[in-house]
Each structure stands twice: as structure tokens, then as C-alpha cells.
Amino acid sequence: MNWTSLCFDWGMRRWRLVVVALTTIPVVLVCLAFWRASRVRDESAREVAARAEFPYRERVLNLAAPSGVEPISAAPEFRDIAPLRDSVLVSSAAGLYLYDAAGTPVRAWRSGLEIPPAEPGVMSAGPSEIFIATRGAGVLAFDGTRFRQILPDDVALRNVTAVLALSTGRVLLGTEHNGALAYDGHRLVALAGGLKTAYVTALAGVEGDMWIGTLTQGVYRYHAGQLDSLASALPDPQVLSISVAGAVAWVGTPLGVVEFRDGQRARTLAEGVFAKAVSANATALAVGTEDEGIYTVPLESRGMRTGRPAVQEVPGSVEAIHEFGSERYAVTASSVYRFDADRGWREVMTAPAAALSARNVAALGFSNGALWIGYFDAGLDVLRPDFSRSAHYEDDALFCINRIAPDPSRDRTAVATANGLVLFDGAGRKRQVLGRKDGLLSDHVTDVAFREGGMVLATPAGLTFVDSGGVRSLYVFQGLVNNHVYSVGVAGDETVAGTLGGVSVLDKDAILANYTTTNSGLRHNWVTAVARVEDDWFIGTYGAGVLRLGSDGRWSSFADLKRSFVVNPNAMLAGKSRVYTGSLGQGLFVYDRDSKRWTNVTNGLPSLNVSALAEGGGALYVGTDNGLVRMSEEALP
């Protein structure tokens, strides 16, 4: 081989290497790009999965009713029913009730006493446990002997709106703002991304074919990992109830029930009916309503014809309808009904008798030795010392009770309401209703406090003074820090007004000082409660807990009140040895005047939303949005 040929061969091999390099490098770069993209995608997927997984705690409950706490009976307000061996479990705002097959009560577990302080709601029976949704305490699982609690770390997820136990052991949870979650005993995760902000109202179906009803987005079908929106097939986007049997689903709305077959709209049943509860068997669909009773709609097998619906009146709103084997049950707030083919719906279980007219307590007060209880929307009760009801008042004026205040100088009681100030005489007779027609700034009276010779009224338009000199008012134009006054307190000639925009201090009718977050140690301008404690004022806020305003005008906080919390309107009471403060969602806060320390009390409360307080007969009465309890001295810290 000569040098020319050798050089030519070497040159050709070199060009081949260059060509191979030029063609290989882009392929390598493309593969590297794909690898990096795949890695980023996998990391993103892991991040999404991590975000979709919700931390929670699980524990076996071993609660015992605390001593010294006595619930004052109120209507339990039944919510749902589930089979438990040869008995049935009924959920209610007051707790859980076990009835035998004959309808005889066997046992009760009361909210805040034997179970956590929250309202039980919808239930679903799984293979070995009943799962119970609660408002505030996550989900309870009951096997007939013990309770387990599944409690999300996120407080917003503890209000569970729906629950569905699947045969595989998974449990679906409906939430108010995070759609549907799935719990498998190890993880709590989002069911589907498309539901991440939905308010879930109903869950039904089986593993692999689940139906999710929402408050504003209609109904979804989740099957084979796919989420289908069927909102356009509904007459109203609000879903109230769902019943599923095989490939057929019935979705209840305020305008009737839509039947779906294999995910396709088939027909509308009970058109125009407010379908709060639905349940289907082989022959008929039962539709429970708000105030029209229960409709029974025959389901004919030939074609799509529907027989004429029949309706049976039952008192109150129908909360749920279920099929257990061959039995069909309907639940109202006060009773459970069972369907009899010959006699229709027959009452088989009833709620226990109650002393209170309602559960949502808005105001408390003692007057002439009797306990007065005001409700948000059920008027006013007066109870004797033995807790028997001596009177009930309810009319257009006695609605949304804000404060009950006895007059220390005269034999009368003032009741501040959203529709005026109602005055009762010493015999408990309603004597007068004051409103705008009488010179008040507003018909809505948020608070009332008595002072020498008259009284001070808080309204959303300012302060009104009523005494022998007549009726006169004070508002921003005259120097009040804000017109919307929530609470007033009086000590001698001094009056303190808590408003939406800060605190005003008055000497008689004259403004002495205004305090806001910009010119003082007040940490939140929205003030909801005030109470005189020795020479100081305790100021309750909507979000910054309790602060102290000293007689020298200086503000201070409490070292052991590190958590910020919402003080409910007028939910503050200066007792003989303690100061009590009711919070929104965090229970009762108790300040011991001797030790100068605060303690948070939750045990024994039917709800952590404490809305009213009164002291009398050596005990504290605590009103919540879910009932009233009496706490003796030994039950208090």
C-alpha cells in the first residue's frame, strides 16, 4: 500500500468519524433533554402527589363523661341511620343513639361527653365499621364496641359533609372546599384533581364507579380513573342527594330527580320536587322533601314510563332515606319511620323529650332566679331551677337574640334582638318593644347595658342612650370611633364601646378616648366583647383573642394566651372568681383571677363554638351552637 492510498483511507475514516459524531451528538442531546424532562415530570408528579396528600391523626377514643358537667336537654335533631348488627345507629346533632329492632333506645353517646365535641352527621356502613361524618371532628369509625377518630391536621378538613364506605376498605370523605378525599387506612389523599375546590354534598356508588354531588357544580361520575361532569344534565346545579343501584343512579336536586343509566341522562322523576333525600329499590323511588313529606314514585320496568307518584305527609324535613335489606327507613329531625307495604310510613323511633326549644344558643342570662335562653332563630325560653320550661316567647321582635340583661335597679329584663329591644316586667310579661320608631338609631340592637338612671344600647349605626331625659344617640359625627357597635360595658360613669373599628371610652355621654391598631396596643380593630374586671377592661376581638385595657389607658396582652382566636359577640363574662370567654371553634377560655392565668376548656362542651355565658347557683352555663351545658365549680379549672 502506497502513502497516497494510506492517506486517502485515513482521511475517509476521519470523515466517517466526524459524520458519526455529528449525527450522534444531537441524538444524545435529545435523549438527555428527554431524560431531564422525564425527571422533571416525575418530580412534579411527586410534588403534586405530596400536595394532594393530607396529613392526619388516627386514634382510638376512650372518652369518659367529665364529672360536674350536665347537659340541658334539647331536641337531638336526627340526621342519619345505619344498621349495626340487630340494631340501628341514629346520628344526631346531640350525639349518637342506639335503638334495638323494636325501636327501643338502648344507649347514647353524647357530643362533647362520650364522643368529641362535634355534630355527627351522615353515616355509611362498611364491612366491619360504621363511618360517621362530623362537623369539626373529622370522621368517627364505630365497630359496635369502640370508636376510632380520623382527624385531618388541617382544621378546614374536619368539617366532613359526606362519607361513603367502600367494600374494598377505602372510605371517601366529602369536604366543604377540597372536594372528595380517599382514606385507605394509611393515607388521606384527594380523589380527583377536578374536584379540588368543590363543596361535596353527597357520595354514592361502589369502587370503580362513584358518584359525587356538589353544592354548585352539579354531579360528577368517577369511574375507571376518569372524572365526568354531568352538570348539564341536571335542572339545578345544587345536588341534594344520590342513590345508586347497579348501573342506574338517581340524583336529587331542588327541582326534581334525574335518573342516569350508564352515565347517560334517562329521565326526570318527581319533577319540581325538592329532593332532599332519595332511595330506590326494585319497584319504587322514595323522595324525601323539606316540607312536603315523602313521595313514592313507581319505577316500571317496561320502557321508561313512570307511574303516578304518591305522597305521604310526615312532620318536618326528611333528612335521609335508606334501604337495609328488605327494610326502608326515613329519618326526620324528630323521628325515624319505617315503610310498611300496607300502612305506608310508620313512626318506629322517636327523639327523647327536651327542655330547650332549639340547640343554637345565642344569649344567656339570669333574671328573678330563672335562666333565660335566647336562640338565633327560635325565640326565647325561660327555665325554672329544675330546668323545666316555664315559658317560651317567639314573635317578629324576638328573633336573633343578641343579649339578655336584667336591670339591677328595676324589676325588669331587657332582651336585645335583631328586631328591637324587648322589655319584660318582673312577672316575665312582655311590656314594650323599642326600635327606630322610638328614636333608636336602628331596629337591630346588638347589646344593652344598664347604668344609673337608664341604659346604653349598641347598634350597627352607633350608640343610643335611653333614660329619664329621653332618647339620644352618638355616632361617628360626634366622635365615636366607628358606627358599628358590637358590645358595650358600663362601670359607674364610664362606658366602653367595642366596634368594628376599635374601642371608644366615654365619660357619661362624652368621648374620652378612641383606640385603634394605629394609636394603641389594640391588635385587632374588630372588637366583639367587653367586660369589666376589677379596674381594667378585658377586650375580646375577632381574631386577636383577649387584650387588657388598664385604667391608665395602657394596653397589654396575656403571656399565656399565645394563640390568636375569635371571641364570639358578647361571649365574655366576668364571674366571681373567673373571667370566661367563648371562642369561635376553640372552646371556652377561663381566666383565674387569683393565679392570673388562662386555661382552654373543651372537654364537656357539645361544640367548640361557644356563643353565650351565664353564671348562677354556683355554676357556669355555657351556650354553644349545638346546645347548652351546666358546669359546676369542680368541672372548671
Features:
637 residues, five-stranded antiparallel beta sheet, elongated, 1 helix, 57 strands, mainly beta, four-stranded antiparallel beta sheet, single chain, Methylamine Dehydrogenase, Chain H
Topology:
Elements: H1 3-52, E1 56-61, E2 69-72, E3 78-84, E4 87-92, E5 95-99, E6 105-110, E7 119-125, E8 130-135, E9 139-142, E10 147-152, E11 162-165, E12 171-174, E13 180-183, E14 188-190, E15 200-206, E16 209-214, E17 219-223, E18 226-229, E19 241-245, E20 248-253, E21 256-261, E22 264-269, E23 277-280, E24 284-288, E25 294-298, E26 310-312, E27 318-324, E28 327-332, E29 335-340, E30 344-350, E31 361-367, E32 370-375, E33 380-383, E34 389-393, E35 401-406, E36 412-417, E37 420-425, E38 430-434, E39 447-451, E40 454-459, E41 462-467, E42 470-474, E43 485-491, E44 494-499, E45 502-507, E46 510-515, E47 527-533, E48 536-541, E49 546-549, E50 555-556, E51 567-574, E52 578-583, E53 588-592, E54 597-601, E55 610-616, E56 619-624, E57 627-632
Antiparallel strand pairs: 1-10, 2-57, 3-4, 4-5, 5-6, 7-8, 8-9, 9-10, 11-12, 12-13, 13-14, 15-16, 16-17, 17-18, 19-20, 20-21, 21-22, 23-24, 24-25, 25-26, 27-28, 28-29, 29-30, 31-32, 32-33, 33-34, 35-36, 36-37, 37-38, 39-40, 40-41, 41-42, 43-44, 44-45, 45-46, 47-48, 48-49, 49-50, 51-52, 52-53, ...
